[in-house]
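In response to the reviewer comment on reproducibility (Comment 2.3), we provide here a single inverse folding case reported in full, input and output, so that an independent group could reproduce the run without further information from us. The structure tokens appear first.
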């Protein structure tokens, strides 16, 4: 059965690679990002685009309106957009304005989008929600580096568990996925190709009905929180 996807942060990097897989499967996809590059990426793939800032209070509502207009609903939500991999900072010298910005997009942005799309996911017979997280958000082995990013992803992981619980009875499967180190604008050179990073996210987005919920995975295998 064809699926309807919404992928945030899909104008480049891992998000664009997820979108390419979704469209390649014959599914429909709505790509969301702030800049106008998202329109050309969507045009090239034959997908839909919404130029939306998900850190803005009305961003999620605009995305819902676009999903309704272009696809008439939603089956798969991929919260992939993120900013500020602040490797130059440490916890005791952190610029808290930058931390606040990271939380606004990476955590609250995903939270707002999840709240806005929950009614559509509940209506779907194959509802899946994937929060794209990071090993930087693992409490196990948490260090003092990249504080804005790490705290925002640890909070995203907590949000994943709460959403999984809230949506369990509606049979919407909710999981967090780390794509590994991927060569993108954020990851820099040296990481693995975007298609490899996208694979584990697509896996979580297309789990069978009896698949896991409330888990944290990399490459389809559970990892520590
Ligand atoms: N790359 C890695 O090694 C790595 C490792 C672990 C986890 N991750 C995670 O994987 C995901 C994708 O990362 P990436 O490396 O592909 O990043 P990227 O290349 O920097 O792409 C980020 C995407 O998010 C969009 N975006 C940022 N802020 C937004 C906002 N407020 N509203 C809407 N869209 C927004 C960007 O487009 P605009 O700028 O046009 O808005 C862009 O499309 C992120 O969640 C990241 O934390 C990446």
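Designed residues, in position order:
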């Amino acid at each position: 059965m064809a699926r309807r996807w919404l992928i945030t942060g899909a104008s480049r990097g891992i998000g664009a690679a997820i979108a390419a897989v979704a469209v390649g499967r014959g599914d429909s996809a709505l790509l969301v990002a702030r800049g106008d590059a998202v329109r050309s990426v969507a045009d090239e793939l034959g997908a839909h685009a919404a130029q939306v800032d998900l850190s803005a209070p009305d961003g999620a509502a605009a995305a819902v309106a676009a999903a309704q207009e272009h696809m008439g609903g939603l089956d798969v939500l991929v919260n992939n957009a993120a900013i500020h991999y602040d490797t130059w900072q440490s916890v005791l010298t952190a610029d808290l304005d930058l931390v606040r910005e990271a939380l606004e997009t990476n955590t609250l942005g995903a939270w707002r989008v999840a709240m806005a799309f929950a009614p559509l996911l509940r209506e779907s017979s194959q509802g899946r929600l994937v929060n794209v997280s990071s090993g930087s958000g693992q409490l196990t082995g948490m260090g003092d580096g990249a504080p804005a990013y790490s705290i925002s992803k640890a909070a995203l992981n907590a949000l994943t568990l709460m959403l999984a619980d809230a949506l369990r009875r509606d049979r919407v499967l909710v999981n967090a996925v780390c794509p590994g180190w991927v060569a993108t604008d954020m990851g820099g050179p040296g990481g693995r190709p975007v298609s490899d990073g996208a694979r584990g996210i697509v896996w979580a987005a297309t789990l069978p009905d009896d698949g896991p919920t409330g888990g944290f995975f990399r490459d389809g295998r559970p990892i520590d929180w």
